[in-house]
Amino acid sequence: MMLSHSFRTGLTTGFVKGTPSSDIVVALQHLHACAAQVGHPMLLPIIILSYDLSPANDQKQRDARDWLRRLENAVSLRDEVEQQEQYFQDGLLEVDGLNRDLVECHGHVMWKRPQAYHALVGEMDKAMQRFHAKSAADPPPDGPRSRHRSEIDRLHRSMLARLEFYQVKLKGLENYIHTTLARLKVQREALYNIMSQREARLNLEIAGEQRRIAHASKRDSTAMKTISLMGALFLPGTYLASVFSMTFFNFQAGVTDHVASQLWIYFVVTVPLTGAIVGSWWWFDRRREAQYAKDDEDLEKNIDKMEKDIMFHLRKRTMSKANTWNTVSSPPART
Q1: Cα–Cα distance for residue pair 302/298, rounded to 1 Å
Q2: Distance CA 300, CA 292 (A)
Q3: I need a surface site. Which of 75, 98, 218, 273 has the fewest CB within 10 A?
Q4: C-alpha distances in angstroms, 157 versus 40, 63, 148?
Q5: Contact 127/2 with Cβ under 8 angstroms?
Q6: What is the pTM of this model?
Q7: Which residues make beta-bridge pairs with 93?
C-alpha cells in the first residue's frame, strides 16, 4: 500500500495490492461505510490492520495450542491419548505422522508473526504523529471545515488508542507464541530422541544379525579348513599309490609274492612327504596370521595418529582465532 495526502485539498490518493486470502475487498467496503471520517489518511491502513489482527488470528493460535497439547500427549504416551487418534496404528506410535503434524503445527504458529505487525504499528504511530503535528501547525479553519477538523481530531485520538491497544495485544500474543514455539521445540527434541532410540535398537539388531552371520561364516571357514586339511592328508598318499600301483602289487595267477619286498619305500616316501606338506601349510598359515595381526596393529596406530592430527589441527585453528563471540577486545599481539 502507498498513500499520499494533500493538506491543501484534504484528499488522500494511492494504491493498494492484495492477495485472494487478504481482506482488501472487505476493508474497502468498510471504508465506504465510513465516508464521514474518510478525511483521515490513516483510516484505511487502520481498517486493514484491524482485519489482519481480528479475533480469527487469536483463535488460530489457540487452535494451534490445542493441537500442540494433543501432540504432547501422543509423544509422551499419556493416558489422555485415545486409541482412535491418527497417531496410533495397530497400537503402535506413528512417528512419521507425528513429525509431519509437528511441522504443520509450527507453520500455523508462525502465521502472521506479531513481531512484524508490532513494527508496522510503530511505523503507523509515527505517521499519525507527523500528520497530527502538521495539522496542528496549520491555522484553525472556520465554519464547516472547523467541525470537520474536530471530527478528524476525535477520529485521530480513537485511532491512536486503537494502535496502543494493538501494541499491547501484539506483545501478549508474542509471548503466547514464544511459549508455543518453546513447547514445540521440546516435543521435536523428544521425538528425535525416540527416533534415535529406535535407530539405535535397529542398529543393535543389525549388529546381532551380522555377528551371527560372522559366526556362521567362521564355522563354515573352519569346516572348509578341515576339508582342506583332510585333502592335504590323503592327496599325497593317493598320488603315490597311483604311481606305485603297477610295481608293488601283483595279483595275477601263479604269483606267490603278491606284495613286492620294496613296499616299505612307499611308506618311507609318503609319510615324510605328507608331514612336509602339512608342516608347510601350518607354517604358512601362522605366518599369514602374524601378518594380519601386524596389519591390524598398523591400522590401529594409523587411526590413533589420524585422530591426534585432527585434534591438533582443531586446537590450532581454535587458538589462532583473533576474537570469539564474547570477546570484548582483541588479544594482545605476540612478541
Answers
A1: 6
A2: 12
A3: 218
A4: 11, 34, 14
A5: no
A6: 0.55
A7: 88
Domain ranges of the chain: 260-318
Query: What stretches of 110-143 show up as alpha helix (H) in DSSP?
Result: 114-137
Q: How does pLDDT run along the chain (335 residues), one tens digit per residue?
A: 788 888 777 788 888 887 877 788 888 888 888 777 777 888 888 888 888 888 888 888 889 888 888 888 877 776 555 555 566 666 666 777 788 888 888 888 888 888 888 888 988 889 888 888 888 777 766 666 777 778 888 888 888 998 999 999 999 988 998 998 998 898 888 888 877 877 777 777 777 777 777 777 777 787 788 788 888 788 877 877 776 665 666 666 666 666 666 777 777 887 888 888 888 888 887 887 787 778 767 767 776 776 676 656 545 544 443 343 344 444 444 44
142 φ, ψ (degrees, to nearest 5): -115, 160
- Quote the cell numbers at residue 14: 494511492
The alpha carbon torsion through 288, 293, 297, 299 (nearest 10 deg) reads: 60
